[in-house]
Amino acid sequence: MKSSCVFLSILFSLTAFQVNAQEKDQVNQLVIITNHPGPVISKDIYGHFSEHLGNCIYGGLWVGTDSKIPNTNGIRNDVLFALREIKVPNLRWPGGCFADTYHWKDGIGPKEKRASIINTNWGGVTEDNSFGTHEFMKLTELLGCDAYINGNVGSGSVREMSDWVEYLTSDAVSPMTKLRKENGRDEPWKVKYFAIGNENWGCGGNMTAEFYASTMKQYSTFLGDYSGNQLYRVACGPSDYNFAWTETLMKDAGTRQMFQGLSIHYYSVVDGWDFKGSATKFTEREWFETMRLNLEMDKIIKGHSAIMDRYDPQKSKGLVVDEWGNWFNVEPGTNPGFLFQQNSMRDAITAAIHLNVFNQHADRVKAANLAQMVNVLQSVILTKDDKIVLTPTYHVFRMFRVHQEARLLNLDLRCEDYVFGDKKIPAISASASVDKDGKVHISLANLNPNKQITVTCPLIGDSFKKITGEILTADEMNSYNSFENPENVKPVIFNRFTLKDGILRIIMPSKSVVVLELTK
């Protein structure tokens, strides 16, 4: 292994010298080792999040079987078709903060008999529980994705959570399976991910790390693996830089045995939680600060990974970044508790940065969930009555889907800085992978909204005969898709590249996302 690393280092150095000798003015260089693949990029890095919040569920995903909007079992067809296109691998539900107030038995059985509840976290609205366990599991089946269910630790009980897992996954003779069958489902479902609480350091109970660790062990003990279903138990992890929380959960071997994944939440909030700025009316300072905060995700993952590596050098535990994205002020005139915000070219670059970072940490990051899927925060889809809008973020997920289950490629990126005032950040974000058919995919983002950048990319290891590409960009930083102009920002064919003597030269327009496919 050591000699291999030395060899790669020499290759990087030699290639850098050759390129610099050929193009002395070139400072943007991406060296990719195409025949030395690393870990598999889990498809679950590209997961999504659907909370009972605003119009994410009701009106976004769910319209009911009596709706005039075309639907399948009450789930909107237009949204279904769009989500299938981006290959959603897993979907997290029912929260979020809502999860630790949710009692699952309220959402099963005949709809006319289900208890109405008040959503105390988001807007104080009354919900009729017409979308519950059966409806969510049907949604995952229609999407062809895995279920990621978030259990209630904050206001629930061990028995309630244990019963839910049994109801979902057991085919044994028991009161829970009998109840499930009475509600119309004979066969048990498969549930991949199950979270033991959400943000229990905050809205999930305001617990200390020590108290949560003990509570989590108790709950986890009674979460059974029934009928061949194997739960991937996700412990509530920290928010952003709270490394002490991770240390507490990782340092005790007994605690570590009770979970397979540790969650992390991180939102990019430009000027603090009191005033988060507009999603569409912003300055270059706000653009720059958003990009800078996005790049912090890499530092956050490295920090928590370093702690996990000390106690888990085999990397048997995964980081699950199950809430991430930009958070801005709600759109004017909308319910403040519904968190409805527009989605611009700035959000598209944000998505590309995060997905590139997750790819680069494929050895430790095993799942992630954009917050949220429809109509809430940095969503991929907006709906209004029977209309639908695919956001710039949606298009990035569609472009990047080629990395799912591919193997990460080693790369060395050295690029110019994007400078604003007295601050600077790297101008380029990138990752690369090779799929099972040998096709190499390179994803890049130009963070600079003002400058075209040329990237020189030596390809070490293989020769390629064909290259195709897509690009997502826009005229303005704040360009977005509206119900009146739904295709203002969309991908087009990209061909501003050349390949000569094993060196790929890519001309990246300002504020752009590019994905290239290289075929031998």
Structural notes for this entry:
By secondary structure, the protein is α/β, with parallel strands linked by helices. The chain has 2 domains: 2-39 and 408-519, Immunoglobulin-like (Sandwich), CATH 2.60.40.1180; 43-405, TIM Barrel. The chain is built from 11 helices and 26 strands. The protein has helices at 2-22, 77-85, 133-143, 158-169, 175-182, 209-221, 243-251, 253-256, 284-311, 345-360, 392-400; strands spanning 29-40, 47-49, 71-72, 75-76, 90-93, 117-118, 126-127, 146-151, 193-196, 232-235, 261-268, 318-326, 365-370, 381-384, 387-390, 407-414, 417-420, 423-426, 428-434, 440-446, 453-460, 466-472, 492-493, 497-500, 503-508, 512-519. It starts with a helix and ends with a strand.
Key terms for this structure?
disordered N terminus, alpha/beta, 27% helix, 520 residues, eight-stranded parallel β-barrel, Immunoglobulin-like, 26 strands
User: CATH-wise, what's the superfamily of the largest domain?
Assistant: Glycosidases
Which fold name is given in CATH as the topology of the largest domain? Answer: TIM Barrel
Number of helices in the DSSP assignment: 11
Number of DSSP strands? 26
Distance N to C terminus: 27 Å
> What overall geometry do the principal axes of the alpha carbons give?
globular
Beta-strand percent range: 25-35%
Mean of residue pLDDT values: 94
Evaluate the radius of gyration: 23 Å
